[in-house]
Amino acid sequence: MGESPELLQQGRGPVPVRRQRPAPQGLREMLKARLWRSCSCSVPCAWALVQDLLPATRWLCQYRPREYLAGDVMSGLVIGIILVPQGIAYSLLAGLQPIYSLYTSFFANLIYFLMGTSQHVSVGIFSLLCLMVGQVVDRELQLAGFDPSQDGLWPGANGSILNGSAATLDCGRDCYAIRVATALTLMTGLYQVLMGVLRLGFVSAYLSQPLLDGFAMGASVTILTSQLKHLLGVRIPRHQGLGMVVRTWLSLLRSAGQANVCDVVTSTVCLVVLLAAKELSDRYRRHLRVPLPTELLVIVVATLVSHFGQLHKRFGSSVAGDIPTGFMAPQVPEPRLMQRVALDAMALALVGAAFSISLAEMFGRSHGYSVRANQELLAVGCCNVLPAFLHCFATSAALAKSLVKTATGCRTQLSGVVSSAVVLLVLLALAPLFHDLQRSVLACIIVVSLRGALRKVWDLPRLWRMSPADALVWAGTAATCVLVSTETGLLAGVILSLLSLAGRTQRPHAALLARIGDSAFYEDATEFEGLVPEPGVRVFRFAGPLYYANKDFFLRSLYSLTGLDAGCVAARRKEQGFEVGVGEGGPAQGKDLGPVSSRAALVPTAAGFHTVVIDCAPLLFLDAAGVTTLKDLRRDYGALGISLLLACCSPPVRDILSRGGFLEEGPGGTAEEEQLFLSVHDAVQTAGARHRELEATDARL
């Protein structure tokens, strides 16, 4: 290879000259260099590391108060007002006291303010994670001997015991529930931090959008089902394991006659008000500077009505109960519980990481800045690791609050500090005022918050028309979440997505190409009319990679479209003793065909072609099996006097062919120049010229 970057002019047109690559660095030298860069320390390197771990130290220096402060304060106040009722409500999903959800909202916003790379994402309590935390908490409570049919906020539930095993614990139900939740949260955060340290942010990309939408849909149905007992005011067991949703519905049907009339009326009124307000907000969104704080207004009015109407005493309606003020002393999660919930934490870590990274990247693209997936993993992981010692449970980014945050003028994560200040005010002074708040009102807030996820079911027909494989992933994930469990649904979605990806690469589209008029372009002859096939040449396109899983499909497609099974015919000719003096490179290698050339020409004449050109432009990659397939195909075609040429190979494909032994020096010249072509038209023209030269040689013989 020469060093000139200019194009060399040869008989078939310009040929690019490959650049000389530097000698590859050995593994030992590469590891030594990286270790030296990692261990070397200086003041600029240390400061750069601090800025990478705490991005707030970078953007706070560039903060412009006149432009950013008003929007950050406004969005922070709005999110803080939303966090208070949602935090109290989502405690139902997690099976914990409301104070713990307020702790979670407070600390998560502060930590993400320091470590997050997204300027608009709102991190805090998330309904799907609350559901998954609640399922683990319920299971561990049942194993510990507490009655799973009793929630922590029912009167007297804190001491309800199902069997004698709970008597050996040193705390009651609520205390043991938060111990389980903090152990689960710490393990979740450790997994996420480990993923960030190992730079595994790309893993979340394998959770496709149909998978996440189907998971959100299935989990929303599960959440809706779990809140129906609060809407009706009935006491039923909190089912666990397979078929939880179905068994819960059966229990609700059996207990429908015991519904609390006060809770039913309250739920109906609150649902009508909340849904109507949401619809009006969506319709007049452009005219509203700030979203209507409907949830807060409903909670205030419902609390006043419940307090002065004494609904708990007169009608037995369940209420939130005592909510303490202030902060509790830090506590280390129990290692014994961490071992028990280690497997459950994997699902939480994966779901939280996937939603957080996808939301951060979505808002980054829409507002013109970049986010770092690995740093997002560290940020969300620390939002779980550090608060786990402060009586908090698992958090992640939440779409609904992030959209509200953006709509109210958020410019930076300083708005999270304002939101934490609002939650702090409730923690220090206002929390006891929610003592008489009915739990049915909290359930209504949760149900209404599921509108967006439940509406995704209407996207399924459009998704089916666009991509049936994605629609099957969506439906399979949602159905498994509803009929089996949320964890199983997530696993089923991952498996279906991988199967869908494997299926698309295992059976890609294959077609024969023909020439578009007198141009130098070729397209699928079955898709376009008026194309002109080249006489004696078959141009084959395989729209996918060639590897071990689809090599047989590649050969079947090629043999079916060309009408010649070269492998079988070559083997049959060999058995009959018709050995052709053609090397593995085919007749184009410049070898003397001798007297057998006319015998070999009988097959291509019957088949109607003398050359096969493979358009390698869609060929993403090759593995060892793919290279072997091409070598065997070239050998079989060569035995029949048919040439095999490759066109439009990318540099990585050329390198694989070279390393695999497909391109070797032959007596007629460089194999790469004889078999690889820059365009399909170049390969077709060269094939025709070679065949005419071969015919002239045979005529002279």
From TrEMBL:
Database matches in NCBIfam families: sulP
Domain (STAS): residue spans on this chain: 535-687
Keywords, ordered alphabetically: Membrane, Transmembrane, Transmembrane helix
Membrane in keyword set: yes
Top-level taxon of the source organism: Eukaryota
Listed transmembrane segments: 68-90, 110-133, 183-207, 257-276, 345-364, 376-400, 412-434
Subcellular location(s) per record: Membrane
Biased composition (Low complexity): 9-20
Gene: SLC26A1
Region described as Disordered: spans on this chain: 1-20
Keyword Magnesium set for record: no
InterPro entries: SLC26A/SulP_dom (IPR011547), SLC26A/SulP_fam (IPR001902), STAS_dom (IPR002645), STAS_dom_sf (IPR036513)
Annotated family: Belongs to the SLC26A/SulP transporter (TC 2.A.53) family.
GO CC terms in record: basolateral plasma membrane
GO molecular function: chloride transmembrane transporter activity; oxalate transmembrane transporter activity; sulfate:bicarbonate antiporter activity
Membrane-topology descriptor: Multi-pass membrane protein
Protein name: Solute carrier family 26 member 1
